[in-house]
Write a structure and sequence with these properties.
By secondary structure, the chain is of the alpha+beta class. It has seven helices and five strands. The chain has a single domain, classed as Beta-Lactamase, CATH 3.30.450.20. The longest helix has 21 residues. The chain is globular. It holds the Pfam family PAS_3. It comes from Tenacibaculum piscium.
Length: 211
């Protein structure tokens, strides 16, 4: 399959401090090629973004990136995906109107028979309010550090922040989304990495969630 050529970047909207209201059952799905160019997006993704489908297909996925987001989060995400690994994150997106919406995003990587990356599939659901409230001050600090000292300094601060909580990034995000901060040790003899996978399978694919 030939790759979709990237469209010229559309003018970035001016951020507006108003939220795009997402229903808790809304599932936003997009598929990009290995360069991050959008090949497919479902109706919920199109509606929440405020763009027309034809504007999204062929555009870079950063078309919905909000300027409040620290770049280090996307750098970490992109590096993981290129290694064929997943990274779940709480992300603030920006619609065409300039309004914002917070989501928890999950990825799967599609590979060919030679283990080469073909595409990335992103699934997003509404982020819990408590998780948003927790990451806003952290993301602001990371963004402020990046603006003055660059992404390397931002990453060092993030690693120090996680060290104080005795969590890695994945378990920190799970602790925010699940509402529990007691994830620094094994529970019931199950390794943490298994707990993370089980929890997010429920978060993204269960019909009902308790928030």
């Amino acid at each position: 399959m030939s790759e979709i050529s990237r469209k010229p970047k559309l003018p970035s909207p001016t951020p507006v401090d108003r939220e795009v209201k997402l229903h808790e059952d809304t599932i936003l799905i997009s598929i990009t090629d290995k360069k991050g160019v959008i090949e497919y997006c479902n109706e919920d993704f199109v509606t929440s973004s405020g763009y027309e489908e034809f504007e999204l297909v062929g555009a870079g996925h950063n078309i919905i990136r909000h300027p409040d987001m620290p770049r280090i989060i996307f750098k970490m995400m992109w590096e993981r995906l290129q290694e064929g690994k997943n990274m779940i994150a709480v992300v603030k997106n920006m619609a065409k109107s300039g309004k914002y919406y917070w989501v928890v995003t999950d990825f799967t990587v599609k590979k060919d028979a030679k283990d080469e990356v073909l595409s990335y599939k992103g699934i997003r659901r509404l982020a819990p309010k408590k998780a948003i409230e927790e990451v806003i001050p952290l993301y602001k600090k990371l963004k402020d550090i990046e603006d003055v000292k660059g992404m390397e300094a931002s990453l060092k601060f993030l690693n120090g922040f996680l060290d104080t909580k005795e969590l890695d990034y994945d378990h920190y995000i799970e602790s925010l989304v699940s509402g529990s901060m007691d994830l620094s040790k094994e529970k019931n003899g199950k390794p943490l990495e298994k707990k993370v996978g089980a929890f997010f399978n429920w978060f993204f694919f269960a019909e009902k969630r308790p928030f």
